[in-house]
Amino acid sequence: MAINLKVQLAPKNKRGLLLTNPVMTASGTFGYGMEYEHLFDIQKLGAIVCKGTTFEPREGNPQPRIVETASGMLNSIGWQNIGVEALIREKAPVWAKWQVPVIVNIAGKTVEEYGQLAARLDGVPGISGIEVNISCPNVKAGGVEFGADARSAAKVTAVVRKATALPVIMKLTPTTSDIVGIAKAVAEAGADVVCLINTLKGMAIDVKTRRPVLGNVFGGLSGPAIKPVALAMVYQVADAVDIPIIGCGGIATATDALEFIMAGATAVEIGTANFWNPRATLDILEGIEKFLRKEKIKDIRKLIGIARLKS
Amino acid sequence: MKQVASVISRNEEVIPGIFQTWLKAPELAKGARPGQFVMVRCGKDTVLRRPLSVHRLDGDKLALLFQVKGKGTKWLSHCQKGDKLDVFGLMGNGFKIAPRVKNLLLVAGGIGIAPLYYLAESALSAGKRVTLLLGAATAKQMYPVSLLPSGLEPVLATEDGSAGHKGMVTDLLPEYATSADQIFACGPLPMLRYMAIGQKKLGIKDKPSQISLEMRMGCGVGVCYGCTIRTKNGLKQVCKDGPVFSLDEVIWDDFIRC
User: Fold this and answer.
1) Do residue B224 and residue B168 come from a single domain?
2) Cross-strand partners of A170
Protein backbone atom coordinates (compact mmCIF):
# COMPACT_ATOMS: atom_id res chain seq x y z
CA MET A 1 0.00 0.00 0.00
CA ALA A 2 1.40 3.37 -1.02
CA ILE A 3 1.25 5.75 1.90
CA ASN A 4 1.38 9.52 1.68
CA LEU A 5 3.33 11.18 4.45
CA LYS A 6 3.77 14.50 2.66
CA VAL A 7 2.39 17.59 4.35
CA GLN A 8 2.24 21.20 3.23
CA LEU A 9 3.08 23.58 6.07
CA ALA A 10 2.59 26.86 4.24
CA PRO A 11 -0.25 26.48 1.70
CA LYS A 12 -0.84 30.24 1.48
CA ASN A 13 2.82 31.06 0.90
CA LYS A 14 4.02 31.33 -2.71
CA ARG A 15 7.10 29.22 -2.04
CA GLY A 16 5.25 26.82 0.22
CA LEU A 17 6.92 24.51 2.70
CA LEU A 18 6.34 20.96 1.56
CA LEU A 19 7.70 18.29 3.86
CA THR A 20 8.18 14.68 2.76
CA ASN A 21 6.85 13.71 6.21
CA PRO A 22 5.69 15.51 9.36
CA VAL A 23 8.74 14.78 11.55
CA MET A 24 10.92 17.79 12.30
CA THR A 25 13.66 18.55 14.82
CA ALA A 26 13.12 21.19 17.50
CA SER A 27 15.49 24.12 17.64
CA GLY A 28 18.41 23.77 20.05
CA THR A 29 18.33 19.99 20.16
CA PHE A 30 19.78 19.11 16.78
CA GLY A 31 22.46 21.75 16.19
CA TYR A 32 22.73 22.61 12.53
CA GLY A 33 21.95 19.07 11.40
CA MET A 34 25.51 18.15 10.41
CA GLU A 35 26.25 16.92 13.91
CA TYR A 36 23.89 13.96 13.40
CA GLU A 37 24.74 13.25 9.79
CA HIS A 38 27.07 10.37 10.61
CA LEU A 39 24.53 8.73 12.94
CA PHE A 40 21.64 8.23 10.53
CA ASP A 41 20.29 9.49 7.23
CA ILE A 42 19.02 12.90 8.27
CA GLN A 43 17.78 13.54 4.72
CA LYS A 44 14.83 11.28 5.58
CA LEU A 45 13.45 13.84 8.03
CA GLY A 46 10.59 16.21 7.25
CA ALA A 47 12.60 19.28 8.17
CA ILE A 48 15.45 20.40 10.39
CA VAL A 49 15.09 23.49 12.56
CA CYS A 50 18.51 24.82 13.49
CA LYS A 51 19.77 26.35 16.73
CA GLY A 52 18.27 29.74 17.60
CA THR A 53 20.18 32.44 15.76
CA THR A 54 20.70 36.06 16.78
CA PHE A 55 22.16 39.00 14.89
CA GLU A 56 25.47 39.00 16.77
CA PRO A 57 27.13 35.85 18.12
CA ARG A 58 26.15 35.22 21.76
CA GLU A 59 28.05 33.53 24.60
CA GLY A 60 24.96 32.37 26.46
CA ASN A 61 24.34 31.97 30.18
CA PRO A 62 26.70 30.94 33.01
CA GLN A 63 27.03 27.31 34.12
CA PRO A 64 25.26 25.19 35.20
CA ARG A 65 22.95 25.35 32.21
CA ILE A 66 21.00 22.10 32.39
CA VAL A 67 19.48 19.87 35.04
CA GLU A 68 17.29 16.80 34.84
CA THR A 69 13.88 16.94 36.50
CA ALA A 70 11.06 14.41 36.87
CA SER A 71 10.27 13.27 33.31
CA GLY A 72 12.00 16.30 31.89
CA MET A 73 14.84 18.74 32.03
CA LEU A 74 15.50 22.41 32.55
CA ASN A 75 17.81 24.35 30.28
CA SER A 76 19.07 27.90 30.43
CA ILE A 77 21.45 28.02 27.50
CA GLY A 78 20.68 31.67 26.76
CA TRP A 79 20.90 31.74 22.97
CA GLN A 80 24.55 30.77 22.65
CA ASN A 81 25.06 30.77 18.88
CA ILE A 82 27.41 31.76 16.10
CA GLY A 83 25.34 34.71 14.84
CA VAL A 84 23.53 35.14 11.54
CA GLU A 85 26.56 36.05 9.41
CA ALA A 86 28.51 32.93 10.37
CA LEU A 87 25.37 30.88 9.81
CA ILE A 88 25.00 32.23 6.27
CA ARG A 89 28.72 31.81 5.57
CA GLU A 90 29.34 28.38 7.12
CA LYS A 91 26.06 26.47 7.42
CA ALA A 92 23.71 27.57 4.62
CA PRO A 93 26.03 26.47 1.75
CA VAL A 94 25.99 22.93 3.21
CA TRP A 95 22.19 22.98 3.60
CA ALA A 96 21.80 24.12 0.00
CA LYS A 97 23.05 20.67 -1.08
CA TRP A 98 20.58 18.81 1.14
CA GLN A 99 17.20 17.37 0.26
CA VAL A 100 15.80 17.98 3.71
CA PRO A 101 14.53 21.55 4.15
CA VAL A 102 16.26 23.57 6.84
CA ILE A 103 14.38 26.19 8.84
CA VAL A 104 16.32 28.87 10.69
CA ASN A 105 15.11 29.71 14.18
CA ILE A 106 15.64 33.42 14.90
CA ALA A 107 15.62 35.43 18.11
CA GLY A 108 15.91 39.16 18.58
CA LYS A 109 16.41 41.67 21.37
CA THR A 110 14.05 44.19 19.75
CA VAL A 111 11.16 44.01 17.29
CA GLU A 112 13.36 45.68 14.66
CA GLU A 113 16.06 43.05 15.13
CA TYR A 114 13.59 40.28 14.25
CA GLY A 115 12.88 42.16 11.03
CA GLN A 116 16.58 42.62 10.26
CA LEU A 117 17.27 38.93 10.82
CA ALA A 118 14.41 37.87 8.56
CA ALA A 119 15.53 40.28 5.83
CA ARG A 120 19.11 39.02 6.05
CA LEU A 121 17.99 35.39 5.63
CA ASP A 122 15.57 36.11 2.80
CA GLY A 123 16.83 34.62 -0.46
CA VAL A 124 19.81 32.81 1.08
CA PRO A 125 20.15 29.44 -0.71
CA GLY A 126 19.73 26.51 1.66
CA ILE A 127 17.13 28.18 3.89
CA SER A 128 13.52 27.05 3.42
CA GLY A 129 11.78 28.91 6.19
CA ILE A 130 12.06 30.99 9.34
CA GLU A 131 10.90 30.00 12.80
CA VAL A 132 10.49 33.02 15.03
CA ASN A 133 11.29 32.47 18.68
CA ILE A 134 9.14 34.82 20.76
CA SER A 135 9.00 32.35 23.57
CA CYS A 136 12.43 31.80 25.15
CA PRO A 137 12.31 32.05 28.95
CA ASN A 138 16.11 32.28 29.29
CA VAL A 139 17.10 35.74 28.16
CA LYS A 140 16.56 39.13 29.78
CA ALA A 141 15.77 41.12 26.65
CA GLY A 142 13.69 39.64 23.88
CA GLY A 143 12.26 36.17 23.76
CA VAL A 144 9.24 35.52 25.88
CA GLU A 145 8.43 39.20 26.47
CA PHE A 146 7.30 39.43 22.83
CA GLY A 147 5.28 36.26 23.01
CA ALA A 148 3.37 36.77 26.24
CA ASP A 149 0.57 38.94 24.82
CA ALA A 150 -1.28 39.01 21.53
CA ARG A 151 -0.39 42.57 20.57
CA SER A 152 3.39 42.29 20.79
CA ALA A 153 3.33 38.80 19.24
CA ALA A 154 1.39 40.20 16.28
CA LYS A 155 3.80 43.14 16.00
CA VAL A 156 6.84 40.84 15.67
CA THR A 157 4.95 38.67 13.19
CA ALA A 158 4.06 41.63 10.99
CA VAL A 159 7.65 42.92 10.97
CA VAL A 160 9.05 39.51 10.01
CA ARG A 161 6.28 38.99 7.43
CA LYS A 162 7.18 42.27 5.75
CA ALA A 163 10.90 41.44 5.72
CA THR A 164 10.80 38.04 4.02
CA ALA A 165 8.97 35.98 1.44
CA LEU A 166 10.06 32.79 3.22
CA PRO A 167 7.43 30.78 5.10
CA VAL A 168 7.18 32.15 8.65
CA ILE A 169 6.58 29.94 11.68
CA MET A 170 5.78 31.66 14.96
CA LYS A 171 6.90 29.57 17.95
CA LEU A 172 4.71 30.40 20.92
CA THR A 173 5.18 30.25 24.66
CA PRO A 174 2.86 28.26 26.93
CA THR A 175 3.48 30.84 29.67
CA THR A 176 0.28 32.76 28.94
CA SER A 177 -3.37 32.64 29.87
CA ASP A 178 -4.42 33.32 26.29
CA ILE A 179 -2.76 30.89 23.89
CA VAL A 180 -5.75 30.98 21.53
CA GLY A 181 -5.75 34.78 21.38
CA ILE A 182 -2.02 34.90 20.65
CA ALA A 183 -2.26 32.21 17.95
CA LYS A 184 -5.15 34.07 16.28
CA ALA A 185 -3.23 37.36 16.43
CA VAL A 186 -0.08 35.97 14.78
CA ALA A 187 -2.17 34.19 12.13
CA GLU A 188 -3.91 37.49 11.30
CA ALA A 189 -0.55 39.29 11.24
CA GLY A 190 0.66 37.02 8.45
CA ALA A 191 2.21 33.93 10.03
CA ASP A 192 2.18 30.85 7.78
CA VAL A 193 2.45 28.40 10.66
CA VAL A 194 2.26 28.39 14.47
CA CYS A 195 4.46 26.10 16.52
CA LEU A 196 3.19 25.08 19.96
CA ILE A 197 4.88 25.05 22.44
CA ASN A 198 8.27 26.31 23.61
CA THR A 199 9.51 25.39 27.12
CA LEU A 200 7.77 26.36 30.35
CA LYS A 201 9.62 28.55 32.83
CA GLY A 202 10.87 26.54 35.81
CA MET A 203 13.66 26.16 38.35
CA ALA A 204 15.44 23.74 40.66
CA ILE A 205 17.18 24.32 44.01
CA ASP A 206 20.16 22.43 45.38
CA VAL A 207 19.27 21.83 49.04
CA LYS A 208 22.90 21.18 50.00
CA THR A 209 24.25 24.46 48.66
CA ARG A 210 20.94 26.24 49.32
CA ARG A 211 21.17 27.89 45.92
CA PRO A 212 19.34 27.63 42.60
CA VAL A 213 20.91 24.87 40.49
CA LEU A 214 20.99 26.84 37.25
CA GLY A 215 23.48 29.66 36.82
CA ASN A 216 20.66 31.75 35.38
CA VAL A 217 18.31 30.74 38.27
CA PHE A 218 15.39 29.96 35.90
CA GLY A 219 15.27 27.68 32.91
CA GLY A 220 12.90 26.22 30.37
CA LEU A 221 11.20 22.92 31.18
CA SER A 222 11.02 20.39 28.35
CA GLY A 223 10.58 16.66 27.89
CA PRO A 224 7.70 14.21 28.50
CA ALA A 225 6.58 16.22 31.56
CA ILE A 226 5.16 18.98 29.34
CA LYS A 227 3.48 16.80 26.71
CA PRO A 228 -0.08 17.01 28.07
CA VAL A 229 0.21 20.81 28.32
CA ALA A 230 1.42 21.08 24.72
CA LEU A 231 -1.23 18.69 23.46
CA ALA A 232 -4.05 20.67 25.10
CA MET A 233 -2.76 23.89 23.55
CA VAL A 234 -2.54 22.36 20.07
CA TYR A 235 -6.09 21.02 20.49
CA GLN A 236 -7.41 24.43 21.56
CA VAL A 237 -5.59 26.42 18.88
CA ALA A 238 -6.54 24.00 16.09
CA ASP A 239 -10.16 25.08 16.55
CA ALA A 240 -9.32 28.75 16.39
CA VAL A 241 -6.90 29.24 13.47
CA ASP A 242 -6.92 28.08 9.87
CA ILE A 243 -3.12 27.98 9.39
CA PRO A 244 -1.14 24.77 9.98
CA ILE A 245 0.14 23.96 13.45
CA ILE A 246 3.42 22.31 14.43
CA GLY A 247 3.07 20.37 17.67
CA CYS A 248 6.10 20.44 19.98
CA GLY A 249 6.61 19.50 23.62
CA GLY A 250 7.73 16.19 25.08
CA ILE A 251 7.20 14.12 21.94
CA ALA A 252 9.31 10.99 22.27
CA THR A 253 7.46 8.21 20.45
CA ALA A 254 5.37 7.70 17.32
CA THR A 255 2.29 7.45 19.53
CA ASP A 256 3.08 10.86 21.03
CA ALA A 257 3.49 12.31 17.53
CA LEU A 258 0.20 10.76 16.38
CA GLU A 259 -1.59 12.26 19.38
CA PHE A 260 -0.45 15.73 18.31
CA ILE A 261 -1.48 15.11 14.71
CA MET A 262 -4.89 13.87 15.83
CA ALA A 263 -5.22 16.97 18.03
CA GLY A 264 -4.76 19.12 14.95
CA ALA A 265 -1.02 19.41 14.24
CA THR A 266 0.15 19.12 10.63
CA ALA A 267 3.73 18.35 11.72
CA VAL A 268 5.66 17.71 14.92
CA GLU A 269 9.00 18.85 16.32
CA ILE A 270 11.11 16.45 18.37
CA GLY A 271 13.36 18.06 20.97
CA THR A 272 14.54 16.63 24.28
CA ALA A 273 14.05 13.03 23.09
CA ASN A 274 17.05 13.53 20.77
CA PHE A 275 19.25 13.70 23.85
CA TRP A 276 18.48 10.25 25.20
CA ASN A 277 17.80 8.76 21.79
CA PRO A 278 19.86 10.35 19.02
CA ARG A 279 17.75 8.43 16.47
CA ALA A 280 14.43 9.54 18.01
CA THR A 281 13.25 11.43 14.92
CA LEU A 282 13.83 8.49 12.62
CA ASP A 283 12.28 6.02 15.08
CA ILE A 284 9.18 8.24 15.27
CA LEU A 285 8.94 8.55 11.49
CA GLU A 286 9.17 4.77 11.09
CA GLY A 287 6.60 4.31 13.85
CA ILE A 288 4.12 6.66 12.19
CA GLU A 289 4.46 4.83 8.90
CA LYS A 290 3.97 1.49 10.64
CA PHE A 291 0.84 2.76 12.35
CA LEU A 292 -0.67 4.00 9.09
CA ARG A 293 0.07 0.69 7.41
CA LYS A 294 -1.46 -1.27 10.27
CA GLU A 295 -4.54 0.93 10.40
CA LYS A 296 -4.78 0.95 6.60
CA ILE A 297 -4.69 4.72 6.35
CA LYS A 298 -3.30 5.88 3.03
CA ASP A 299 -2.73 9.51 3.86
CA ILE A 300 -1.36 11.05 7.05
CA ARG A 301 -3.47 14.16 6.36
CA LYS A 302 -6.58 12.15 7.12
CA LEU A 303 -5.49 12.02 10.75
CA ILE A 304 -4.91 15.74 11.24
CA GLY A 305 -7.38 16.94 13.85
CA ILE A 306 -9.35 13.69 13.76
CA ALA A 307 -9.58 13.50 17.56
CA ARG A 308 -11.32 16.86 17.85
CA LEU A 309 -14.86 16.62 19.10
CA LYS A 310 -17.36 18.75 17.24
CA SER A 311 -18.69 21.46 19.44
CA MET B 1 30.19 7.68 17.32
CA LYS B 2 27.78 4.80 17.76
CA GLN B 3 24.75 3.93 19.83
CA VAL B 4 25.41 0.42 21.07
CA ALA B 5 23.40 -2.16 23.02
CA SER B 6 26.22 -3.43 25.23
CA VAL B 7 25.98 -6.29 27.69
CA ILE B 8 27.08 -5.96 31.30
CA SER B 9 29.60 -8.65 32.16
CA ARG B 10 30.29 -7.53 35.73
CA ASN B 11 29.05 -4.86 38.10
CA GLU B 12 30.63 -4.50 41.50
CA GLU B 13 30.87 -2.02 44.32
CA VAL B 14 34.58 -1.30 44.53
CA ILE B 15 34.25 0.80 47.66
CA PRO B 16 31.04 2.01 49.34
CA GLY B 17 29.10 4.08 46.81
CA ILE B 18 31.55 3.60 43.94
CA PHE B 19 30.85 1.00 41.27
CA GLN B 20 32.84 -0.53 38.47
CA THR B 21 30.75 -1.76 35.53
CA TRP B 22 32.31 -3.93 32.83
CA LEU B 23 30.58 -3.90 29.46
CA LYS B 24 31.01 -6.08 26.46
CA ALA B 25 31.04 -3.49 23.69
CA PRO B 26 33.50 -4.38 20.93
CA GLU B 27 32.47 -1.41 18.74
CA LEU B 28 33.39 0.99 21.53
CA ALA B 29 36.36 -0.81 23.05
CA LYS B 30 38.09 -0.76 19.71
CA GLY B 31 39.94 2.51 19.39
CA ALA B 32 38.95 4.00 22.77
CA ARG B 33 41.53 6.54 23.87
CA PRO B 34 42.31 7.50 27.49
CA GLY B 35 40.22 10.48 28.52
CA GLN B 36 37.31 9.72 26.21
CA PHE B 37 33.85 9.05 27.59
CA VAL B 38 30.49 7.50 26.77
CA MET B 39 26.89 8.66 27.34
CA VAL B 40 24.93 5.99 29.20
CA ARG B 41 21.15 5.68 29.26
CA CYS B 42 20.34 4.94 32.88
CA GLY B 43 16.86 3.46 32.61
CA LYS B 44 13.59 4.69 31.20
CA ASP B 45 13.02 7.14 34.03
CA THR B 46 15.90 9.36 32.96
CA VAL B 47 15.78 11.99 30.26
CA LEU B 48 19.47 12.78 30.04
CA ARG B 49 22.22 10.25 29.47
CA ARG B 50 25.03 10.19 32.02
CA PRO B 51 28.53 10.99 30.77
CA LEU B 52 31.00 8.43 32.16
CA SER B 53 34.72 8.09 31.42
CA VAL B 54 36.35 5.03 29.97
CA HIS B 55 37.95 3.69 33.14
CA ARG B 56 39.59 0.50 31.90
CA LEU B 57 39.85 -1.51 28.74
CA ASP B 58 40.28 -5.27 28.28
CA GLY B 59 39.95 -6.67 24.77
CA ASP B 60 36.35 -6.13 23.68
CA LYS B 61 35.33 -5.06 27.19
CA LEU B 62 35.27 -1.62 28.66
CA ALA B 63 34.87 -0.58 32.29
CA LEU B 64 33.12 2.46 33.72
CA LEU B 65 33.71 3.74 37.24
CA PHE B 66 31.10 5.90 38.87
CA GLN B 67 29.90 7.25 42.16
CA VAL B 68 26.22 6.89 43.01
CA LYS B 69 24.99 10.47 43.09
CA GLY B 70 21.41 10.52 41.85
CA LYS B 71 18.65 8.64 40.09
CA GLY B 72 20.69 7.57 37.06
CA THR B 73 23.79 6.31 38.81
CA LYS B 74 21.63 4.55 41.40
CA TRP B 75 19.83 2.73 38.59
CA LEU B 76 23.15 1.79 37.00
CA SER B 77 24.49 0.46 40.31
CA HIS B 78 21.59 -2.02 40.43
CA CYS B 79 22.32 -3.45 36.97
CA GLN B 80 23.54 -7.01 36.88
CA LYS B 81 25.58 -9.33 34.74
CA GLY B 82 23.74 -10.04 31.50
CA ASP B 83 21.71 -6.81 31.53
CA LYS B 84 21.74 -4.72 28.38
CA LEU B 85 23.03 -1.20 28.56
CA ASP B 86 22.37 1.48 25.92
CA VAL B 87 25.70 3.25 25.46
CA PHE B 88 26.44 6.10 23.07
CA GLY B 89 30.07 6.90 22.29
CA LEU B 90 32.90 7.39 22.11
CA MET B 91 32.96 11.07 22.87
CA GLY B 92 35.62 13.65 23.50
CA ASN B 93 39.22 14.36 22.65
CA GLY B 94 41.13 12.40 25.29
CA PHE B 95 44.49 13.00 26.98
CA LYS B 96 47.58 13.58 24.89
CA ILE B 97 50.87 12.24 26.14
CA ALA B 98 53.67 14.26 24.57
CA PRO B 99 55.90 11.88 22.57
CA ARG B 100 59.20 12.48 24.33
CA VAL B 101 58.13 12.67 27.97
CA LYS B 102 59.40 10.06 30.40
CA ASN B 103 57.78 10.90 33.72
CA LEU B 104 54.06 11.42 34.09
CA LEU B 105 52.39 12.72 37.22
CA LEU B 106 48.70 11.89 37.62
CA VAL B 107 46.52 13.69 40.18
CA ALA B 108 43.22 12.04 41.08
CA GLY B 109 40.71 13.58 43.48
CA GLY B 110 38.06 11.04 44.55
CA ILE B 111 36.17 9.65 41.57
CA GLY B 112 38.65 11.56 39.37
CA ILE B 113 40.61 8.31 39.19
CA ALA B 114 38.04 7.13 36.60
CA PRO B 115 39.75 8.35 33.38
CA LEU B 116 43.27 8.38 34.87
CA TYR B 117 43.38 4.61 35.39
CA TYR B 118 43.23 3.92 31.66
CA LEU B 119 45.70 6.73 30.99
CA ALA B 120 48.11 5.19 33.52
CA GLU B 121 47.83 1.75 31.94
CA SER B 122 48.45 3.13 28.44
CA ALA B 123 51.41 5.19 29.60
CA LEU B 124 52.95 2.28 31.51
CA SER B 125 52.66 -0.01 28.50
CA ALA B 126 54.36 2.70 26.42
CA GLY B 127 57.29 2.53 28.84
CA LYS B 128 56.65 5.75 30.75
CA ARG B 129 57.19 6.18 34.46
CA VAL B 130 53.89 7.02 36.12
CA THR B 131 53.33 8.45 39.59
CA LEU B 132 49.76 8.75 40.85
CA LEU B 133 48.75 11.17 43.58
CA LEU B 134 45.50 9.65 44.83
CA GLY B 135 43.23 11.62 47.13
CA ALA B 136 40.02 10.89 49.03
CA ALA B 137 38.15 12.21 52.05
CA THR B 138 38.95 9.13 54.15
CA ALA B 139 40.79 5.80 53.75
CA LYS B 140 37.42 4.07 53.39
CA GLN B 141 36.58 6.24 50.39
CA MET B 142 39.97 5.67 48.75
CA TYR B 143 40.14 3.73 45.50
CA PRO B 144 41.80 0.41 46.49
CA VAL B 145 45.54 0.53 45.85
CA SER B 146 45.48 -3.22 45.25
CA LEU B 147 43.41 -2.65 42.11
CA LEU B 148 45.78 -0.13 40.56
CA PRO B 149 47.88 -1.28 37.58
CA SER B 150 51.21 -2.81 38.52
CA GLY B 151 54.21 -0.61 37.92
CA LEU B 152 52.32 2.48 39.00
CA GLU B 153 53.73 4.43 41.93
CA PRO B 154 50.81 5.62 44.10
CA VAL B 155 51.09 8.30 46.78
CA LEU B 156 48.04 8.70 49.00
CA ALA B 157 46.38 11.64 50.70
CA THR B 158 43.23 11.76 52.82
CA GLU B 159 41.51 14.75 54.34
CA ASP B 160 41.27 13.08 57.76
CA GLY B 161 44.73 11.51 57.63
CA SER B 162 43.41 7.94 57.81
CA ALA B 163 45.68 7.00 54.88
CA GLY B 164 48.83 8.67 53.59
CA HIS B 165 49.32 12.40 53.81
CA LYS B 166 46.78 14.27 55.93
CA GLY B 167 45.30 17.01 53.81
CA MET B 168 44.45 17.63 50.19
CA VAL B 169 45.96 15.61 47.38
CA THR B 170 47.21 18.85 45.83
CA ASP B 171 49.44 19.36 48.93
CA LEU B 172 51.66 16.65 47.44
CA LEU B 173 52.23 18.54 44.19
CA PRO B 174 55.25 20.69 45.19
CA GLU B 175 57.22 17.56 46.14
CA TYR B 176 56.27 15.35 43.20
CA ALA B 177 55.96 17.86 40.39
CA THR B 178 59.72 18.52 40.28
CA SER B 179 60.50 15.25 38.54
CA ALA B 180 57.38 15.26 36.31
CA ASP B 181 57.52 16.10 32.62
CA GLN B 182 53.77 16.27 32.18
CA ILE B 183 50.82 16.43 34.60
CA PHE B 184 47.31 14.99 34.17
CA ALA B 185 44.55 15.70 36.66
CA CYS B 186 40.93 14.85 37.24
CA GLY B 187 38.82 15.62 40.26
CA PRO B 188 36.27 18.02 41.67
CA LEU B 189 36.16 21.50 40.08
CA PRO B 190 37.49 23.23 43.24
CA MET B 191 40.57 20.94 43.15
CA LEU B 192 41.29 21.76 39.52
CA ARG B 193 40.66 25.43 40.08
CA TYR B 194 43.04 25.39 43.06
CA MET B 195 45.72 23.85 40.84
CA ALA B 196 45.18 26.55 38.23
CA ILE B 197 45.28 29.56 40.51
CA GLY B 198 48.07 28.17 42.71
CA GLN B 199 50.35 27.00 39.90
CA LYS B 200 53.38 28.92 41.13
CA LYS B 201 53.03 27.84 44.76
CA LEU B 202 52.44 24.23 43.75
CA GLY B 203 55.50 24.19 41.49
CA ILE B 204 53.59 23.29 38.33
CA LYS B 205 53.78 26.60 36.52
CA ASP B 206 56.18 25.38 33.85
CA LYS B 207 54.77 21.87 33.64
CA PRO B 208 52.40 21.12 30.78
CA SER B 209 49.20 20.10 32.56
CA GLN B 210 46.03 18.59 31.19
CA ILE B 211 42.81 18.27 33.15
CA SER B 212 39.59 16.40 32.48
CA LEU B 213 36.43 18.37 33.28
CA GLU B 214 33.18 16.94 34.59
CA MET B 215 30.18 18.95 33.43
CA ARG B 216 26.43 18.48 33.16
CA MET B 217 25.70 17.41 29.61
CA GLY B 218 22.63 17.11 27.43
CA CYS B 219 23.47 15.67 24.05
CA GLY B 220 27.16 14.65 24.14
CA VAL B 221 27.64 15.67 20.52
CA GLY B 222 27.91 19.45 20.76
CA VAL B 223 24.41 20.55 19.77
CA CYS B 224 22.71 21.57 23.01
CA TYR B 225 25.38 23.91 24.43
CA GLY B 226 24.58 22.61 27.91
CA CYS B 227 28.27 22.05 28.74
CA THR B 228 29.78 25.20 27.26
CA ILE B 229 32.68 26.79 29.14
CA ARG B 230 34.73 29.89 28.47
CA THR B 231 38.40 29.38 27.67
CA LYS B 232 41.24 31.64 26.59
CA ASN B 233 40.62 30.24 23.10
CA GLY B 234 36.93 31.13 23.09
CA LEU B 235 33.83 29.15 24.00
CA LYS B 236 34.27 25.37 24.10
CA GLN B 237 31.85 22.49 24.49
CA VAL B 238 33.19 20.09 27.12
CA CYS B 239 31.58 17.12 25.34
CA LYS B 240 32.97 17.82 21.89
CA ASP B 241 36.06 19.98 22.37
CA GLY B 242 36.99 18.43 25.76
CA PRO B 243 36.61 16.94 28.27
CA VAL B 244 40.40 17.30 28.36
CA PHE B 245 41.74 20.85 28.38
CA SER B 246 45.06 22.40 29.21
CA LEU B 247 45.03 23.74 32.78
CA ASP B 248 45.96 27.22 31.54
CA GLU B 249 43.24 27.38 28.93
CA VAL B 250 40.16 27.31 31.16
CA ILE B 251 38.74 30.51 32.67
CA TRP B 252 38.49 29.22 36.22
CA ASP B 253 36.76 32.24 37.74
CA ASP B 254 33.57 31.04 36.06
CA PHE B 255 33.48 28.08 38.43
CA ILE B 256 33.47 29.87 41.77
CA ARG B 257 29.82 28.91 42.24
CA CYS B 258 29.90 25.47 40.64
Assistant:
1) yes
2) A132, A194
